Amino acid sequence: MSMQASPSPQGGGERNARASVVEASGLGLTFQTNDGPVQALSNVDLAIGKGEFVSFIGPSGCGKTTFLRVIADLESPTSGTVRVNGMSPEEARRKRAYGYVFQAAGLYPWRTIERNVALPLEIMGYPKQEQRERIKRTLDLVNLTGFEKKYPWQLSGGMQQRASIARALAFDADLLLMDEPFGALDEIVRDHLNEQLLELWKRTDKTICFVTHSIPEAVYLSTRIVVMSPRPGRVTDVIESTLPRERPLGIRESPEFLAIAHRVREGLRAGHSYE
Amino acid sequence: MTASAPMAAPGAGSNASTAAFRRVAESKTFAILVVVLAIIAIWYAFTVYLNAPWQLDTYRRDGQEWTAMQLARDTMAQERPVLPSPHQVVAEIWKTTVDVRPSSKRSLVYHGWITLSSTLLGFVIGTALGILLAVSIVHNRAMDKSVMPWVIASQTIPILAIAPMIIVVLNAIGLSGLLPKALISTYLSFFPVVVGMVKGFRSPEAIQLDLMRTYNASTSQTFWKLRWPSALPYLFTSMKVAVAISLVGAIVGEMPTGAVAGLGARLLAGSYYGQTVQIWAALFAAAAMAAVLVALVGIGQRLALARMGARP
């Protein structure tokens, strides 16, 4: 069961070497609020290579979600530049370069699971036959086969979130932006979904940007962890994971894992030192 | 429901029968029945009380002896009572719906149909107009700022004042018959639809709109795939108000405009000639019609939402 992803020259073996999927330099974003300007992002430099799994971690207000939204062209930066697949975020969005998974599943309650997955395909004008194939393939990928005809309210929270991931995968964008997708789920479901997400990432060789505020989640999933801190939102540390690509859940008790988790925690604490 | 509930099994003792009694007492049907009976009782009491002065006057003039029993009976059988008794109204409704040909000018069915047709036409136009206005208000900032105040202002003008104007103006440009009356219904019924649908079209959450943006969906795709289905529950709720208010509009439209047919004309004729029984019969016919129309919209709502996978 492979994803027949669009052929890519990199093949996914080497990372960082080729043109970045996401490249931000001197990126800043200031919101004008009633209490004066709020610097959500300040001077962010970051390059994300093809096939990477990058987690963004930090306390609320550190700009991790904002950064994801800038990549997705849901917010516009006020300074600096960001390129997605070598294009401006707007061009990338128009080319449907990414799939976005929101904090809440946000499934349409009036559509069945398969119709929800079909939504982007309908909008992008895929022929009916191909829609059916893609729905089948992506629902299989997130282990929701058999639930095609169910309505969202008939599914558990974890299954709904999996359906929303299927919806983001359906049109085969190479970049997956995930904004705390498992934040509202309990620990056990979350572990399970993390495992499935890694499995999916290995099989499809997508580039994934993943926002979280769980340290174990970030360490378990990522090839790189970007630690951020608030006021102003900025990147304080970027940690390369030394963990192998193959990661059973048990790896979370290994000394290597704990060492990385420790470094992430230190990084988060450093960001808070002024308090 | 209550009747089919397992009745106290023979020999089950008084506990079971009190339980059955409680079930009956707590049922909805029972509650409605009690209220209806209370209203009828109060109505009869007022019939006697309000019609007594005229009746006593008559007795005095005729030098007639009377008993309380006779007074009660006579006050409920006057030809032009201040307040007709319930059974007089029922008899009148029966007489004018069942006993007379529906095509006769004396038939409530005939008058009801006249009013119903303009109600429905006005309701359909009003709903369509309301949806159109709501669509443009939601998609256009200028419309949002400029139209909404006028929509609200339109409803502050008494319909009784503007109804004859509408009829006269439309007659002058050659429109007469059903349409002018229907337009008065439209005038009233588009309002709840505009207000409800603006709210409905704006009901999708921010992440659902963001999602459409990440798909690079066009405005019309966002409308048909997100805004319209999100707004449907609001549409039915406003249509319930709109259909009832359309009926009011049709009746009001028939009153000050010299209409010769329709429930409004019937009410007006009744009041010219002091035919209170006729007035009350027409009122009840209008109320029943409104109830049926609202119930029909409710059925449509249940069917539509069930098709959209609503939780049963």
Polypeptide structure, described:
By secondary structure, chain A is α/β, with parallel strands linked by helices. Chain A is 34% helix and 23% strand. Chain A has two domains: 22-97 and 174-271, Rossmann fold, CATH 3.40.50.300; 106-172, no CATH class. In chain A, the strands form two sheets. Chain A has a six-stranded mixed sheet, with helices on both faces. A three-stranded antiparallel sheet of chain A has the order 2-1-4, covered by helices on one side. Chain B is mainly alpha-helical and 312 residues long. Chain B is globular. The interface between A and B is medium-sized, with 25 and 19 residues.
Features:
heterodimer, A: 275 residues, alpha/beta, Rossmann fold, 2 domains, six-stranded mixed sheet, three-stranded antiparallel sheet, 8 helices, 34% helix, globular, disordered N terminus, B: 312 residues, mainly alpha, MetI-like fold
Give a brief rundown of this model.
By secondary structure, chain A is an alpha/beta fold. Chain A is 34% helix and 23% strand.
* Total beta strand runs of chain A: 9
User: Overall pLDDT of chain A, averaged?
Assistant: 86
> Assembly type of the shown chains?
heterodimer
How would you characterize the largest beta sheet of chain B? none
Q: Output the CATH class name of the largest domain in chain B.
A: Mainly Alpha
- Going by helix content, strand content and strand pairing, the class of chain A is alpha/beta
The CATH superfamily label of the largest domain in chain A reads P-loop containing nucleotide triphosphate hydrolases
Strand order, biggest sheet of chain A?
A: 5-6-7-3-8-9
Break the fold down into its secondary structure elements and pairings.
The complex is a heterodimer of chains A (275) and B (312).
Chain A: E1 22-33, E2 36-48, E3 53-57, H1 64-71, E4 79-84, H2 89-94, E5 98-101, H3 113-123, H4 128-141, H5 157-169, E6 175-179, H6 187-204, E7 207-212, H7 215-221, E8 224-229, E9 234-240, H8 255-271
Parallel strand pairs in A: 3-7, 3-8, 5-6, 6-7
Antiparallel strand pairs in A: 1-2, 1-4, 8-9
Chain B: H1 14-26, H2 28-62, H3 68-75, H4 86-99, H5 108-139, H6 141-154, H7 159-172, H8 178-201, H9 206-214, H10 219-254, H11 263-272, H12 276-307
Helix pairs in contact in B: 2-3, 4-12, 5-6, 5-8, 5-10, 5-11, 7-8, 8-10, 10-12, 11-12
